[in-house]
Amino acid sequence: MNEDLRPDHNSTIDFSTVLASAVHDMKNSLCMLIQSIDQLSGDTANKNEKESNELAKIHYEASRLNTNLLQLLSLYRAEKNQLPLMIEEHYLDDICDEVIETNRFYIENRDLSIELNVQPDLAWYMDGSLIANLLNDIIVNALRYTKTKIKVSAHEKNNQLVLTIEDDGDGYPQSMLEITEMPMQDINLNAGRTGLGLFFARMIASAHTNKGKCGEIALTNGGELGGSTFTLTLP
After folding, report:
1. Are 136 and 99 in contact (CB under 8 A)?
2. Contact residues for 13 (Cβ-Cβ < 8 A; gap 6+)
3. What is the pTM of this model?
4. For position 45, what pLDDT does the model report?
5. CA quadruple 7, 11, 12, 17: dihedral positive or negative?
6. Average confidence (pLDDT) over 38-49
7. Bridge partner list, 88
8. What mean pLDDT is reported for the chain?
9. Contact 169, 228 (CB under 8 A)
10. How deeply is 163 buried, as exposed, middle or buried, from its count of CB atoms within 10 A (0-12, 13-18, 19+)?
11. What is the pLDDT of residues 117-140, one digit of tens each?
12. Dihedral sign (CA 139, 198, 132, 219)
């Protein structure tokens, strides 16, 4: 007689909580994998170009997956009202440098250049961890589609922080441009990583409020490099 593996009718399984716990474990494993890839990349640098290229691709995909898992955890905590913002003063060049260094191996392997245009003394009050995750996802996306160059800029305008990420790729498709104009509840997360990433970016940006103003994102094409331009504005 086969044993019934269904849960007892008196027990309750919160699948979202189980999933969040599994995502957390997977994220930790991915972090260890990325560290191992970093170590291997140092050992193979300038020794075997083919192996180095393959490691760069694996590193990129592992980092991208890690970012997606972080987004899922953040969305889960937000849905459970367990995502309080940790607002502190952060220097923008520190956050941008950290994100760029995280992707340094892939950047160098593809022979891409990144221009950082941020004044050293520019600081802002924000949740540094969430904003860093947001920027990392945008930069990782730009790394995939740019041709030769990415430019990261930050400045203060009208008492707001304006941070832009530009590339010289082919620009955002129309479907992505339309997402930023949709109400949050109408965004189709079945669109894949792009839909989830932009939903996450809008959620984090809008959670930053000050004096009645909310943070926002904008996607455009053109800019100084002729490709896509992502703009994050924080009050």
Report:
1. yes
2. 7
3. 0.72
4. 53
5. negative
6. 62
7. 126
8. 78
9. yes
10. buried
11. 998 899 999 999 889 989 988 998
12. positive
Q: In this structure, are residues 201 and 216 in contact, taking their beta carbons and an 8 Å threshold? A: no
pLDDT digits (tens, 9 = 90+) for 188-229: 555 544 567 787 888 889 889 998 899 999 999 998 999 999
Q: Are 118 and 100 in contact (CB under 8 A)?
A: no
Q: Is residue 195 within 8 Å of 214, Cβ to Cβ? A: no
Structure tokens, 148: 């030769």
21 pLDDT more than 70: no
Residue owning tokens 């640098």: 45
Calculate the alpha carbon distances from 4 to 7, 8, 29 in Å: 8, 9, 32
Q: Which of 136, 18, 16, 162 is nearest to 71 (CA)?
A: 136
Q: Concatenate the DSSP letters of all residues of 28-50 into one string.
A: HHHHHHHHHHHHHHHHHTTT-HH
DSSP 204-222: HHHH-EETTEE-EEEEEE-
> Helix (H, G, I), strand (E, B), or coil: what is residue 227?
coil
Contact 100, 131 (CB under 8 A): no
Q: Whose CA is closest to 225, among 155, 149, 172? A: 149
H or E segment to which residue 229 belongs = strand 228-234
Cα dihedral 138, 142, 144, 149, rounded to 10, equals -150
Distance CA(234)–CA(182), nearest Å, equals 19
